[in-house]
Amino acid sequence: EDQVTQSPEALRLQEGESSSLNCSYTVSGLRGLFWYRQDPGKGPEFLFTLYSAGEEKEKERLKATLTKKESFLHITAPKPEDSATYLCAVRRSGSARQLTFGSGTQLTVLP
Amino acid sequence: GAVVSQHPSRVICKSGTSVKIECRSLDFQATTMFWYRQFPKKSLMLMATSNEGSKATYEQGVEKDKFLINHASLTLSTLTVTSAHPEDSSFYICSASRGAGNEQFFGPGTRLTVL
Among all residues of chain B, which has the CA nearest to that of A86? Predict the structure, then answer.
């Protein structure tokens, strides 16, 4: 059974204080690891897809990396508007595009 | 970008009534749509996978007769919660996937409250 574990559950940062969120996964044949951002009362917003170990992607203050067992979402010099829940999900080979989600990291960036 | 809409955004209904939620892909054709349920401060739980023109595939533990899914076109899927009860109150989110690529694009969600 696919498993996705995110840590920490919650993270409070001061504005400008860089940090990383972790997503550990166990999946039979990774077909993609996805990062989403979710604001309260809204649906998830797609951020990145990573397909193979060593791959990195960047978008503004966010950078996602992938190894064979985990992914990190690095946040550089965060701003209050980066406050949200960040979700990680994996897709397994042959799963008809179904995703297994982690429970998320709730990030709060204080001004 | 890929835009997915849901309607309504919020609905309050009495116990025993049925509620229909629509999910539309606005600027692309979605060969597959997914329905999720999310409890407060919890992650998304996949309820069912819907392919246009065929029956939905439900996850274990999800009652197909209670959560009716119709995927009549490449841009529209509907979820009907039949004979709703207070325990069905939740945040329901749909997503859509294009034929090419693996990304799922999510709708804004529907908050269902059953009194």
Answer: B43
Determine contact, residues B36/B93, Cβ cutoff 8 Å: yes
- In this complex, do B106 and A101 lie within 8 Å of one another by their Cβ atoms? no
Q: Smallest Cβ distance to B109: which of A36, A42, A106?
A: A42
Task: Name the residue with tokens 């892909």.
Answer: B25
**Cα A1 to Cα A16: distance, rounded to the nearest angstrom:** 38
Is B26:B45 a contact under the CB 8 Å cutoff?
no
Is residue A36 within 8 Å of residue A23, measured between CB atoms?
no
What 3 state SS string does A28-60 have? CCEEEEEEEEECCCCCCEEEEEECCCCCEEEEC
* Terminal CA-CA length for chain B: 37
Q: How far does chain A reach from its first CA to its final CA, in angstroms?
A: 41
**pLDDT tens track for A44-86:** 999 999 999 999 999 999 999 999 999 999 999 999 999 999 9
User: Which of A5, A99, A105, A107 is most worth mutating to test chain B (most B CB atoms within 10 A of its CB)?
Assistant: A99
Q: Is the pLDDT of residue B25 over 60?
A: yes
Averaged pLDDT score across all residues of chain A: 93
**Residue B100: pLDDT over 80:** no
Quickly list DSSP for A74-85. EE-S--GGG-EE
Q: In B, which residues are within 8 Å of A34 by CB distance?
A: 102-104
